[in-house]
Design a protein that fits this description.
- Helices cover 36% and strands 14% of the residues.
- It contains 22 helices and 18 strands.
- By secondary structure, the protein is an alpha+beta fold.
- The protein has a domain of 134 residues: NusB-like (N-utilizing Substance Protein B Homolog, Chain A), CATH 1.10.940.
- A hairpin with a 2-residue loop joins strand 11 and strand 12.
- Helix 1 packs parallel to helix 4 and helix 7 runs antiparallel to helix 8.
- Strands 5, 6, 7, 8, 9, 10, 11, 12 and 13 form a nine-stranded mixed sheet that branches. It has a four-stranded antiparallel sheet with strand order 2-3-1-4, with no helix packed on it. A three-stranded antiparallel sheet has the order 15-14-16, with no helix packed on it.
């Protein structure tokens, strides 16, 4: 039998398993078989697997056009050999075409349909001659489901939709979470993070094989994932009891533990195996402080006992497709409704556990509103005791404390839409995330009248639509709502320089900014979709939408995990500095990159 290159043989086996089961590339790329390869072959294997998955929809379209019978259904073996061969011919510059053709034919002969070898050879030779059938901006779009792209165009506009598609087609970068004040990782060349002071982006080296990573002093975690956890850690003042309702794999839990050393933290996940893996993943100094509980977050029967709850819920993961490329192949539009129902159940359960004055952070890694704003709106519509807290003021405090860098805060101004956080991949160099902060009103009427930044709580966004804010006599102050919806106790907030409704560069509960600062002025609200956006000196972001936290689709590789426990984020991507897969290689935490 002719010899097949080890990287191609193993890549073919992994892709075939993904095509014929619910296995996930991340798990298979962390297998002992992959680890046993040479560094070069390990790098090439990751490039072949993830690259083929990224381009699979576009490759299939080109392959079908070259078949004698385009409507014919190919066997998984033949389809996998064709996809992987076509990917190498079209997207890898330094791979010899004769080697691709030879190994593709031999791989088909290993299966039960040896007669397909001739067809595979003929089609790949046609592709070798024809080259790409889609060039330029059209190519990334064709590598995504049409229904998905159309939604993004409608939601975010054509330019941003194109940026998302283009980002998904490139290897995802590797970001490290370092201890506060650290900047170096042994054997790894890094550069500052895009948003956070504790984040460093790997430029060269193999983070997965770094001693610092292996000894859990440094974690591999996407920067937007870190940001969501930093927001959660900052929303409540010295919380005593904290619940992470969908905790595994543990990256966000670790940040909560680091930032809240006084808190008793309960980490809940539906999968015993994932909780066990989480305990191994976390440094012992953190793990021993946590209480671990196996439970379905959607079915938790909580009583008010927590000052802070994080609901980083399972989702379709459409914000993480650069590192989880098979999501685009497996997720369908009807999945959004199913995910929405489960997400709403988890949010309802989490809210029941809040003490008066306590806060909950709801997050996903989905770009779809059904999993983000729509979940929050549906749950709060029948929960009058809860109100949305603007994330902008929290980001301001994180910047003041140095958690978010000054440059990062400026960059994040376009990531706050209304009261929510939304990072778009391709617009930001990280995964797509959505986060909302919700507060349970205090039972103390005086406390209930207080504000996050100078505006009244206890009113839904819809309630203040069309209302006007009238500036008071004092410097940068607001007299409150004018009209039927005005509430007692919401009068002037004198000299509020930092976070008042009309505060200098501040914003209030409903995202209102100062419009003029001459002792008097006006604060005005303006609808953007379902939200009130800031009117002020900064240019308003007129696009709506949301992005999610780091969880990928619920029905992912781990069958035993059920709906909730699917792995979040990406796996090892050997980031290639050259197209062939040579160069930077890293082992990202498969669930929380």
């Amino acid at each position: 039998m002719s010899r097949i290159a080890p990287a191609r043989r193993l890549s073919y086996q992994i892709l075939l398993q993904i095509a014929t089961s619910d296995a996930h590339s991340d798990d298979l790329l962390h297998s002992p078989e992959v680890d046993a390869l040479s560094p070069q072959d390990r790098n090439l294997t990751t490039t072949l697997v993830l690259g083929t998955l990224r381009w699979q929809l576009a490759l299939d379209a080109q392959i079908r056009g070259l078949l004698a019978r385009p409507e014919a259904k190919l066997s998984p073996e033949a389809a996998t050999a064709l996809r992987m061969g076509a990917y190498q011919l079209l997207h890898l510059d330094r791979v010899p075409a004769h080697a691709v053709l030879h190994d593709s034919v031999e791989l088909v002969k290993l299966g039960r349909e040896k007669s397909a070898a001739g067809m595979v050879n003929a089609v790949l030779r046609k592709i070798q001659v024809a080259g790409h059938t889609a060039e330029g901006e059209a190519a990334p779009r064709l590598a995504h489901p049409e229904w998905m792209v159309e939604r993004w165009v409608q939601r975010y506009g054509a330019e941003r939709a194109q940026a998302i598609c283009a980002w998904d087609q490139e290897p995802a970068g590797i970001t490290l979470r370092l201890p506060q004040g650290s900047t170096d990782v042994d054997g790894i060349e890094t550069e500052p993070g895009f948003l956070l002071s504790c984040a460093r982006r790997a430029v060269r080296g193999d983070p997965g094989r770094s001693v610092a990573v292996q000894t859990r002093q440094v974690r591999i975690q996407d920067e937007a994932s870190q940001l969501v956890a930093e927001i959660a850690a900052a929303v409540a003042s010295q919380p005593k009891r904290v619940l992470d309702a969908c905790a595994a794999p543990g990256g966000k839990t670790a940040i909560l533990a680091e930032r809240l050393p006084q808190a008793k933290i309960t980490a809940v996940d539906v999968s015993p195996k994932r909780l066990q893996a989480m305990q191994r993943f976390l440094p012992e100094a953190i793990s021993v402080r946590l209480r671990f509980e196996v439970a379905d977050a959607a079915k938790l029967e909580l009583k008010p006992e927590y000052d802070l709850v994080l609901c980083d819920v399972p989702c379709t993961g459409t914000g993480t497709m650069a590192r989880n490329p098979e999501i685009r192949i497996r997720v369908s539009e009807p999945d959004l409704k199913r995910q929405h129902q489960r997400q709403a159940a988890i949010l309802r359960a989490g809210l029941k556990g809040l003490n008066p004055g306590g806060r909950l952070v709801y997050s996903t890694c989905s770009l779809e509103p059904e999993e983000n704003e729509d979940v929050v709106a549906e749950v709060l519509r029948v929960a009058p005791d809860f109100t949305i807290v603007p994330v902008a003021g929290i980001l301001d405090r994180l910047a003041e404390s140095g958690v978010v860098t000054a440059q990062g805060r400026d960059r994040l101004r376009s990531a706050t839409v209304g009261n929510f956080l939304r990072t778009l991949p391709g617009i930001y160099p990280c995964d797509g995330f959505f986060a909302a902060v919700i507060e349970k009103q205090s039972s103390d009427p005086a406390e209930a009248a207080k504000t996050e930044g100078g505006c009244c709580r206890g009113k839904d966004l819809e309630d203040v639509a069309g209302d006007k804010w009238e500036n008071g006599e004092g410097k940068n102050s607001c007299d409150g709502l004018v009209g039927d919806d005005a509430e007692p106790g919401c009068s002037a907030h004198e000299d509020d320089e930092t976070a008042g409704a009309c505060g200098e560069e501040g914003r209030g509960e409903f995202g209102l900014r100062k419009a003029a600062a001459q002792g008097r002025g006006e604060c005005g609200g303006e609808w953007i979709g379902e939200q009130i956006a800031a009117r002020g000196s900064d240019e308003m972001d007129k696009s709506g939408g949301a992005v999610g936290a780091e969880d990928r689709q619920a029905d992912c590789a781990f069958a035993e995990i059920e709906d909730q426990g699917c792995c979040r984020g990406g796996g090892r991507e050997e980031q290639a500095e050259q197209k062939d897969g040579e160069g930077l290689q890293g082992e990202r935490d498969r669930c929380e990159p």
